[in-house]
Amino acid sequence: MRQLLFKSLLFLSLAAGSAAMTACSSGDGDGVLLFSVQDDIALGDKVAAQTDSTYRAKGQLLDPKDSRNNQAYAYLGNVVNKVLNNSSGQLQHRNDFVWDVKIIKDDATLNAFASPGGHIYVYSGLIKFLDHEDQLAGVLAHEIAHADRRHTSRQLQQQYGISLLLSLLGGDNPNQLAQIAAGLGQLKFSRDFESEADMYSVVYLSGTDYACDGAAGFFIKSQSLGEASQPVFLSTHPNPDNRIQAIQGKASELKCQGKTQNDTNLAGLKNLL
């Protein structure tokens, strides 16, 4: 049984030091992660349950337990599993995190996001917006990287503080948990985290049959929308042009560009949504 009280006291004693370390860290404020992997999993489960509840109440969660959605999740699972199972051995927590992906029915939103512990959410608007399956794979790989590299936990720790996050693990502050879950899709990552997730999206796809610069294709198309309509992906630094160039440069280095397009799963998903 988790000795939560002991851990809470321990981490609370470290919190003041953590604040100082964060203040003295890089300009992006990445700080020092005080959460364990098991804490990631526990917090992610709570945040995901709250996120599911929120979107289910709005009638927007495409429930994976509903047999009517089996085919949609089969198509999506084909894409996700290619990334997870052919990621060139670069996933640190392939066997630790749950790695489930759920669809939020909102055609007006071009976004995807990850909770700690490997829970991924993708909006129907993003799926319908994409032209090719490697773009979807690239976006999902980017979110998988945020979870696997534990960027989400670091960003939440920076924004809310370690003591508050630990209190959520103990079942306290349910209103705060709801607020965190509601804001997860708008979480602003640092320059370093975004750049690292971009690079790992290429690495993860390099072992698949997808063109490994798929995320760049999404960014290129998104730029045509104009600044006011661009998704959260492009509302944070670094500059989208620099991100595209960096992704394409990494893909060229790994020699995994220009693979034959197979859009069967994306086309199937679009037809069902």
Can you offer a commentary on this structure?
The protein is mainly alpha-helical and 273 residues long. It has one domain. Helix content is 58%, strand content 5%. It is built from 12 helices and 4 strands, in the order ααβαβββααααααααα. The chain has helices at 4-23, 37-57, 70-85, 124-129, 133-148, 151-160, 162-169, 174-183, 191-206, 214-223, 240-254, 264-272, and strands at residues 61-62, 100-104, 112-114, 119-123. A 4-stranded mixed sheet has the order 1-2-4-3. A hairpin with a 4-residue loop joins strand 3 and strand 4. Helix 1 (4-23) runs antiparallel to helix 7, helix 2 crosses helix 8 (174-183) and helix 9 (191-206) packs parallel to helix 11 (240-254). It is globular, with a radius of gyration of 18 Å. 42% of the residues are buried. Mean pLDDT is 85; it is low at 1-29.
Taken from the alpha-carbon principal axes, the silhouette is: globular
Order of helices and strands: HHEHEEEHHHHHHHHH
**End-to-end gap:** 43 Å
Spatial arrangement of strands, main beta sheet: 1-2-4-3
Structural class: mainly alpha
- The stretches of 5 or more residues where confidence is low (pLDDT under 50) are 1-29
Rg result? 18 Å
Largest sheet: 4 strands, mixed
List the domain count as a whole number: 1
- The counted number of beta strands is 4
> Approximately what portion of the residues adopt beta-strand conformation?
5-15%
- What is the count of helical runs? 12
- Quaternary organisation of the protein chains: single chain
What is the residue-averaged pLDDT? 85
Helical content, roughly? 55-70%
